[in-house]
Amino acid sequence: MDSNKMAVSINKAINTQEIAVKEKHARTCILGTHHEKGAHTFWLAVNRLPLSSNAVLCWKFCHVFHKLLRDGHPNVIKDSMRNKADLNDMSRMWGHLSEGYGKLCSIYLKLLITKMEFHIKNPRFPGNLQMSNSQLDEAGENDVNNFFQLTVEMFDYLECELNLFLGVFSSLDMSRSVSVTAAGQCRLAPLIQVILDSSHLYDYTVKLLFKLHSCLPADTLQGHRDRFQEQFKKLKSLFYRSSNLQYFKRLIQIPQLPENPPNFLRASALSEHISPVVVIPVESSSPESEHVAETEDLVDTDIPPLPSTVDSKFDDLFGTSAATDPFNFNSQNGMRKDEKDRLIEQLTAELQALKEELESFRLESGRLCQALRGRVNELEAELAEQTHLKQQALGESEFLRVELDDLRRVKEDTEKEQRSLSEIERKAQANEQRYTKLKEKYTELVQSHADLLRKNAEVTRQMTVARAAQDEVENVKKEMQDRLKAAQDTASQESNEQLSTQLSALEAEKAGLMETVSQKEVELSSLGVELERVQSSLTNERESGVKAAETLQNQLNEKESREQALESKLVSLRWAALRAALEEAGRIVQDSLNQLDDPAHISCTSSADYLVSRCQVALDCVERLQSARDGFVSDNTDVSGLVRAVTQFAHLVGDVIVQGSATSHMVPVEQADALADNVKACGAEALALLCQLKEQKSNGTADCSRLRAALDTVMALGEKLRPRGLELQQGELGDLVEQEMAATSAAVESAAARIEEMLNKSRAVDTGIKMEVNERILASCTDLMQAIKVLVLSSKDLQRDIVESGRGAASMKEFYAKNSRWTEGLISASKAVGWGATMLVDAADQMVQGKGKFEELMVCSHEIAASTAQLVAASKVKADKDSPNLSRLQQASKGVTQATAGVVASTKSGKSQIEDTETMDFSAMTLTQIKRQEMDAQVLVLELETRLQKERERLGELRKKHYQLAGVAEGWGGEEEGTG
């Protein structure tokens, strides 16, 4: 295929007619890129088209370019990146239009730029995004960080697709059958490519999110899940709405997403996910198949013309004998020569029709084969995916079975330990009861022993008395014997009768005494026996008490030793759990520090506002960690509170480290280095604190002050980097809105008065063409000032409606403070309008005095148009779409746009009039002088071209810097950057 044919197809595909791009022209462009292995010819042809002046032309260019990015040669993406800056500028230019094809072109160009950047950054993904599961795994290189970043990029990619989807639907009147009109089909046709891209992106994000949830904590992926939920709702709604349009029903079969999004917290839910498959029917693959093909677009069938000797070849083919040839109509039916020629022409036409039909069948069979091969590839990919899912499910089943067995064993061990503890408690209670009984018995034995001792003392006293009585009896007996002997000695002297009497008395007294002595001896013997019995019983009781006391003491010692062993085991288990939590926390913090050296982390950005909020949360967590540590030191029986505090502490400090490094990527070098160093110091202090908490000796003395100081330093640096607009208080924001709106009104009034004054001066001083030009330009500037005044008043009325409908019971200042981002955008837009009006008057003043340039006036007019669009967008964000003040504001915006166009038109007309009066007279110049001035003019042209190129580059850099500074000052993108 030559480049001329491709250029012709490009010009036929990309035109100003509001009809859908013809499929055959787009197919020719795609084949051309494969033929030349790139998009050189495509961009040569496109760069000649006035894409910036016709929105329909730019829209159809985007459609064809999207097809080339998907189905063209892989080098199309690389060749097209050279035009990325031009596409960006064109997108911003069309973005100033709030409706129609201009807004759609801006959204579509952003999508195409995002698609090119995605494929350049991820070269493993083809343009049509068709990949198998193994290829998707290879794209992430088995690194969870790569999968995390790839998921974020796919979310951004799909967000651009959904924005175009919503933009096209919002620009159509869905109450009418727009899909059967040529204009409606022109807008709907690119959505086929969007549906194909979106189905793959949705499928890949689901699989990547399941993979991430198998590797990372669920809390870390909360932002991913929230963003997926939002995109899932939009995509499901858009797929459903598209499937009901008549235009898509004959061109594409749109899949329907499930009723509920996947549950990523349940790993087995991956097996329930069904990849959405978009089917393009073969018979409807060409959107223009129902339209009549133009004559100039017919494809040459390459049928050679019939030679002049067709009659002879007909005879050679069918024979000439009248007798044997049944087709010799001349002999059979008397057919004339002209009838024969007519029949030949008829057969030739039928033959040509058959050839065309054969060619059509061949093309259709080729498309059918291609579609079948694609379906086979899809089925093979689906089979491979199902096989992979089956293996994954088996692996998960085995893993869950092993985990279930472990849980069962742990449960059994826990139950055994609980039973053992219960048995120990029961035995301890039984021992306690037995000890109480033994203690009572011991007390009884001591009391009995004391009673026996008292009884023994009484018996001893009685024995002493008995011995004293026995001695007395012996003395009496001895005395009686002496008296008896004396009596016997004196018996001889007395009479025998007296002696016998005395002897009998003595014998009787002796018998009485002997009886008394016998009784005393019996009593003394019984007392001795009783004493021996009491002493034996006392000895036995004492021995039994000593043995019982020794047994009881042994049991108590055994119980105390067992309780001490259990307490020691519990303490060791608590410390083991705490050390495991501290080690895991250290790994989390160290992983955050390691991410700072990862090259992929350089592309992560965050805002200072978000960093300050994370630092505050981390400081609060440090306080909770300190309190939990003190509680554990005072009572080490409960370690759960300290474990929870350590876990939360690690995640929050790691988040501060990552967000601090991401914030440093958005600030100047010196501040970035200081922030990065302090973030690393914060991580080092956190690791040191965790090491102190890990040891029992240093746990009670671990100091959090150094970590708290490091976090305070990071927070202070973040406070310095926060946008100035965030420092405003409630009253200041509310007052500033009123002040800026009043200043804008005053600036516009002052500008109108100055223009009127300049107009009067010009009428008094200037004459002729100059006065006419100045009057026309100043009159158009006056109209523009009047239109801006109407715009400002309409904006004030709309803002009043917004505040009254949205503040509730709050005051106006509280409403402005609550919606600070919106308020700051409103203030910025008001400043821009007032500044533009002032600059316009200054440029007009200089131009009237003959010192200025017409170009300055036109640039100021364009700036006012852009500032007006910004003010309308800022006011429209929170307005009710049915508000009459919003309609008046939009009408006022159109009036400003028309007035701006009037200023530009009058400026161009005046410039051309003045330039026409300054005619060049070369009649008095010689050939040498003309040649000399020609050379000087060429040199000046080259210098001006070089200067123009440099000024364009400088303008581009200035715009980039302006967008960057405006974003920092006004807090643009803060919520998006906060996710890291």
Description:
With 980 residues, this protein is mainly α. 78% of the residues lie in helices and 0% in strands. Helix 1 (3-13) runs antiparallel to helix 2, helix 17 (496-595) packs parallel to helix 19 (640-664) and helix 24 packs antiparallel against helix 26 (820-848). The protein folds into 6 domains: 1-121, Serine Threonine Protein Phosphatase 5, Tetratricopeptide repeat (Alpha Horseshoe); 129-293; 353-573; 596-722, Four Helix Bundle (Hemerythrin (Met), subunit A) (Up-down Bundle), CATH 1.20.120; 729-918, I/LWEQ domain, CATH 1.20.1410.10; 933-980. It contains 30 helices and no strands. The longest helix has 155 residues, at 337-491. Mean pLDDT is 77; it is low at 283-335, 725-731 and 969-980. The protein has helices spanning 3-13, 23-36, 40-46, 55-71, 75-80, 84-94, 100-121, 133-140, 144-171, 182-188, 191-213, 222-243, 246-249, 310-318, 329-332, 337-491, 496-595, 608-634, 640-664, 669-694, 696-699, 705-721, 730-765, 768-806, 812-818, 820-848, 854-876, 884-917, 927-970, 974-977.
